[in-house]
Task: inverse folding
């Protein structure tokens, strides 16, 4: 299989250029003798819309202007410029960082953030201004998820450039961290991606050789999928044309984990390429609980409240989603992925999974 | 059984009830003695118009203590940590008007004898304080007092005195007359008394400090028993104009006063009587008033019947057309002097001052002066510091009973941008021919509605000045912070943008920085 061209390196260049242009723009304003200011889309709730075509949230037309002339703006403004500078430094030295790290690094420049949320907010500002995700600036969250399967990647991080790794090489999976996120895809033998909410089931799938039996890449989301993971799934789907199936617990929270991978979150309305609109939620559905007579727990009040919220959510307009939310409310039950264990350890792999995948292929 | 009735003299009365004159305990007694003598000295100086020099010395009286010095030092505090009263010798020297020789024995050896019974603003009022101090010394040490004085004439007179308490008479033990070659004028009082200096020291120093504050034209020197010198220097030689004596105002007169006047008056008809003996009563008012009373204008004052006297007093209080008392007889401290005193003792950042228009209560004129000091050496004690003064003497005891204290507690200070942690001192001075004290001890001002209103309005006015000051300061502070924010952050923006843009030298932001400044100055 021929090496698949990744956008990773190209993208890095774009990011650096965008940061430099951002600085140049401010520089020129000051040279002209005016207070530097910037315009960016507003991230306030009123300016977040659901776009049915893109199948994700986007920001509307409203913009906000931040000016260094305004005494209330100048502090966050300076911090934003610093964040751009810091991201540029990271890119130049090919280093990565975390949100926590950003918070502390600011202190070295004698302009400490008040708290972590303030520093996170500034990073989000930088995302909004530039249109790139913080992962593109090499700023990564602390959360980690993993991938396992027949995909060979080629590193681009310093010291590993050109080195290749097959993602079956470690049975615990390979962590989806900065190095993997920026890697290029060399080749793959897989023809699908299966994302799994929980570590226990992920390990079971590896042990049961699901990747071989069903020719799949296994991705552990470890609860709500981190943005790096969502972007990675997006790339697997876009660059390798692999269909994506998502397995979660059978409750409103599991549903939503799948939905965020598919359609993204309102918090990331200013960003693209974090969503995989063609991914499929493959269970556990409410109907599965009935069909497979899964051991279940009654829904709590919080679960019910959440289901009502989801019913009104524009991302849930699809037939499947409406049907399943309704059914959850009807049967008033929920089940975890592990519930299949009542039929033996391999049941989920041998019976349930093929049935589900077949169902999607037919449709 | 037949009860024994007896008459006691005024001296005897105060001997038995020394609490009411401020001689409650040894600590209080030593404080009150110093205070009474200092106030006499200041009054004497006011009368002569000379800036006062007052020298106070307190020393251990070893003879009187009957203890050796070694014992003495060790027993200042017993094991319980309680200091014990000891015998001290107090000497107060002033450069005031001096007391005429023939009055010296009575002025210091007879209770309720004095020069201050006239209607005039003075610190002392009862002719009590000086003698009470000596009397207290006598009953605790049984030693005579020495008083030396000269009015600046050829001789100085030195008396050795005791008080015959039962008869309220001075007993002269010795008298020395010396030639006054150097033309000295003033009074020296020296006597022994039992006291508790350790407990009194803080009050004494506070008293002297506050006295210096409202009498910035006075030099006060105090030497404590261990030889430590406390000095309060004058910062000005300007003195407030001396208070003038005045006639009683009709609103403040009672039947007894009328009868006394009738006995001495040379006037042969009521019109003249009213005109000559009362404050603010002229020819016209006199006629007008008498018409309202139904008492004949030509009636001879001596012929007034008791009923007519009572009626006269009653009508005086009811008659609306008397002009209010003239405050010409009062001598407030004034803005310049009070500010000088405050600056000297508190070194504040800001002083607000307000002198109210003269007002009256029960026919007595009074003027309220209020000053507010902010910052400097004003204590931060999480509350406003209150300094109270009446006729230029500080009032130290029973603060919480004073009308000013209650007023301050009631004011909503946030309205004036005042927070409890601010270093703020409020000074309230009331001067009057008759200060409305509640007790003989002269410790606090009574809750008279007229007085209360004046104090409240005075404090409000001064507080508004303070508010303006605080607002302005806040504004300046805010502006300073604003500018410092710009000059802190703008260079950083310049620096980071320069690095991002890959430029060699940072953009010129001086113009931007100065534009921020200019904008605000407009």
Result:
């Amino acid at each position: 299989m021929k090496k698949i061209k990744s956008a990773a390196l190209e993208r890095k260049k774009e990011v650096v250029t965008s940061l430099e242009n951002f600085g140049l723009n401010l520089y020129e304003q000051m040279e002209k003798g005016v207070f530097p200011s910037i315009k960016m889309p507003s991230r306030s709730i009123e300016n977040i819309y659901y776009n049915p075509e893109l199948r994700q949230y986007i920001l509307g037309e409203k913009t906000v202007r931040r000016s260094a002339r305004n005494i209330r703006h100048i502090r966050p403004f300076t911090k934003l410029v610093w964040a751009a500078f810091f991201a540029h430094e990271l890119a130049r030295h090919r280093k990565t960082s975390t949100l926590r790290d950003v918070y502390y690094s600011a202190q070295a420049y004698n302009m400490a953030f008040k708290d972590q949320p303030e520093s996170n907010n500034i990073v989000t500002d930088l995302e909004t201004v530039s249109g790139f995700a913080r992962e593109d600036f090499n700023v990564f969250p602390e959360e980690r998820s993993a991938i396992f399967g027949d995909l060979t990647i080629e590193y681009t991080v310093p010291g590993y450039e050109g080195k290749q790794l097959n993602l079956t090489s470690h049975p615990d999976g390979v962590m989806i961290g900065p190095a993997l996120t920026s890697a290029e895809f060399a080749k793959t033998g897989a023809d699908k991606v299966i994302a799994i909410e929980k570590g226990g089931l992920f390990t079971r799938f590896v042990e049961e050789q699901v990747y071989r039996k069903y020719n799949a890449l296994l991705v552990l989301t470890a609860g709500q999928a981190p943005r790096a993971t969502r972007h990675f799934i997006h790339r697997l789907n876009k660059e390798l044309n692999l269909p994506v199936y998502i397995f979660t617990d059978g409750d409103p929270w599991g549903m939503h984990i799948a939905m965020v991978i598919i359609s993204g979150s309102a918090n990331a309305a200013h960003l693209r390429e974090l969503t995989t609109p063609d991914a499929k939620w493959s269970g556990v559905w409410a109907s599965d609980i009935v069909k497979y007579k899964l051991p279940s727990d009654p829904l709590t009040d919080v679960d019910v409240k959440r289901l009502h919220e989801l019913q009104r959510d524009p991302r849930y307009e699809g037939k499947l989603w409406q049907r399943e939310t309704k059914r959850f409310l009807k049967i008033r039950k929920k089940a975890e992925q592990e519930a299949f264990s009542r039929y033996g350890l391999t049941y989920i792999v041998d019976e349930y999974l093929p049935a589900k995948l077949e169902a999607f292929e037919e449709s | 059984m037949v009860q024994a009735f007896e008459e006691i003299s005024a001296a005897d009365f105060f001997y038995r009830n020394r609490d009411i004159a401020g001689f409650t305990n040894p600590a209080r007694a030593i404080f009150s003695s110093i205070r009474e003598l200092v106030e006499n000295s200041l009054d004497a100086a006011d009368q002569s118009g000379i800036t006062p020099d007052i020298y106070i010395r307190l020393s251990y009286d070893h003879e009187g203590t009957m203890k050796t010095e070694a014992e003495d030092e060790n027993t200042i505090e017993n094991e319980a940590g309680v200091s014990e009263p000891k015998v001290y010798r107090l000497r107060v020297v002033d450069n005031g008007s001096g007391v005429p020789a023939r009055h010296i024995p009575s002025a210091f050896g007879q209770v309720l004898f004095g020069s201050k019974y006239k209607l005039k603003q003075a610190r002392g009022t009862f002719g009590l304080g000086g003698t009470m101090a000596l009397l207290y010394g006598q009953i605790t040490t049984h030693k005579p007092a020495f008083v030396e004085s000269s009015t600046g004439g050829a001789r100085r007179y030195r008396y050795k005195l005791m008080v015959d308490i039962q008869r309220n008479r001075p007993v002269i033990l010795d008298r020395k007359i010396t030639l006054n070659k150097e033309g000295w004028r003033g009074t020296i009082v020296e006597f022994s008394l039992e006291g508790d200096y350790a407990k009194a020291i803080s009050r004494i120093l506070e008293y002297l400090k506050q006295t210096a504050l409202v009498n910035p034209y006075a030099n006060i020197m105090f030497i404590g028993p261990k030889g430590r010198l406390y000095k309060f220097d004058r910062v000005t030689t300007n003195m407030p104009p001396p208070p003038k004596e005045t006639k009683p105002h009709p609103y403040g007169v009672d039947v007894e006063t009328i009868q006394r006047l009738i006995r001495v008056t040379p006037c042969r008809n009521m019109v003249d009587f009213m005109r000559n003996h009362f404050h603010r009563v002229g020819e016209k008012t006199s006629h007008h008033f008498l018409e309202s009373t139904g008492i004949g204008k030509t009636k001879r004052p001596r012929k007034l019947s008791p009923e007519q006297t009572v009626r006269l007093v009653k009508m005086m209080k009811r008659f609306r057309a008397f002009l209010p008392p003239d405050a010409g007889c009062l001598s407030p401290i004034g803005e310049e002097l009070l500010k000088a005193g405050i600056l000297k003792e508190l070194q504040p950042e800001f002083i607000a001052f307000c002198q109210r228009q003269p007002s009256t209560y029960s026919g007595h004129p009074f003027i309220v002066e209020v000053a507010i000091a902010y910052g400097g050496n004003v204590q931060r004690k999480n509350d406003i510091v209150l300094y109270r003064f009446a006729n230029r003497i500080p009032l130290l005891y029973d603060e919480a009973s004073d009308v000013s204290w209650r007023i301050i507690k009631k004011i909503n200070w946030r309205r004036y941008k005042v927070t409890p942690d601010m270093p703020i001192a409020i000074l309230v001075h009331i001067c009057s021919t008759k200060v409305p004290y509640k007790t003989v001890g002269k410790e606090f001002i009574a809750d008279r509605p007229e007085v209360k209103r004046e104090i409240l309005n005075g404090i409000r006015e001064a507080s508004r000045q303070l508010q303006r000051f605080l607002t302005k300061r806040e504004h300046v502070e805010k502006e300073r912070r604003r500018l410092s924010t710009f000059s802190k952050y703008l260079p950083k923006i310049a620096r980071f943008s320069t690095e991002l843009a890959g430029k060699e030298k940072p953009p010129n932001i001086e113009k931007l920085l100065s534009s921020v400044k200019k904008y605000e100055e407009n």
Summary: The CA atoms of residues 262 and 276 of chain A lie 5 Å apart.
